Give the backbone structure.
Amino acid sequence: MQLYVDTANINEIRHAAALGIVNGVTTNPSLLAKEDPSVDVRQRILEIYEIMEGGHLSVEVVSTDTDGMLREADEILSWFPDATIKIPMIESGLAAVKSLSRQNIPTNVTLIFNATQAIAANNAGATYVSVFVGRLDDIAIDGIQVVQEVCEIWDTQDLESQIIAASIRHPMHIIGCAQAGADIATVPYKVLMQSLKHPLTDAGLQSFLNDYAKMQAEKAKLAGKN
Ligand code: E4P
């Protein structure tokens, strides 16, 4: 399963990219709104694009009508031609996906909360379907179970869109989505960093370093005696 980082923060993206653990970045209007408002959206997106060196970058439209979405897609593609256009899972969005897919422009259908929405997005020609896990958990619906359902249907029906598990809230979500067979999980930076940590790794490293230092000290003591 590939990992993307779900953020518009330049420092977070730079760090995650430097570790070599992410193949892409997903942004959305809320994530962009969290960042410095003096930087314009185009500039920020291009900065992310440069850091990602050709990795996946989803940029979301904010229009809610098909023509507006297609106009925005054109604009985003004029910034960089390999953009993935992120489109909300609404009827006008599906029509935009159909049109973009006929032009071989990659799309990521976002705000998917069940398998029927995922199937419709696939059929409209979506390159990616983003199934939101955490927001389902928030309303007492098991988000991982929905990802499992979608993955099972994809296997049975041999459907084409890549499945992105989105709205990830903690490392257990990453494991659940990988077990279910999602192609990609897009993960907030904080959760990504949490997922790298294990107390036994830190304790193990500390004892290796202590033992090595002890050995060096003993060596130095012996050398001093001779
Ligand atoms: C997906 O691409 C979205 O940006 C994202 O995962 C939203 O998740 P949230 O529930 O953390 O806002």
Notes: The CA atoms of residues 96 and 181 lie 28 Å apart. The mean pLDDT is 97. Residues 6, 26, 28, 110, 130, 132, 134-135, 166-167, 186 surround erythose-4-phosphate (CB under 6 Å).
